[in-house]
Amino acid sequence: MAEPGKGRGAAPAGKGLSAEQVVSRFNRLRQDQRGLASKAAELELELNEHTLVIETLREVDPTRKCFRMVGGVLVERTVKEVLPALESNREQISKLIEALAQQLQAKGRELSEFRERHNIRLVGEDDPKSTPRDGPEGNKGGPGGVLVS
Question: Which of 32, 62, 95, 130 could disulfide-pair with 80, CB 3.0 to 4.6 Å?
Fold first, then answer.
């Protein structure tokens, strides 16, 4: 008996998925990738804010009072109390950004593998493997692909 997904039977997209299911899953993977990139960008901005505040607070008197938002509540502290907490937060944000970057790379690889496995091309994208073919229908004889907008 043939292994599932190995043959090119009734489902040209492979693994028994219809073209609509392939497009849906591809779009979901792209959306996941965009979400990771968006979160990473948001954390980069937060990291920059932390860095700016830390640099500013290092130049002032450690006994000077400052205000910090904690869980939606503004609290009064001194610079020497706040600075270590900000530096700790900055380190945690840096680690999160690194973890998100790794997840983003993994998601990119997954997306690329899915595109190759299901022969997905985006609208306006040239097929890198294609050469000019005879006839107006070019790719009719090869395995079926999916065109995604």
Answer: 62
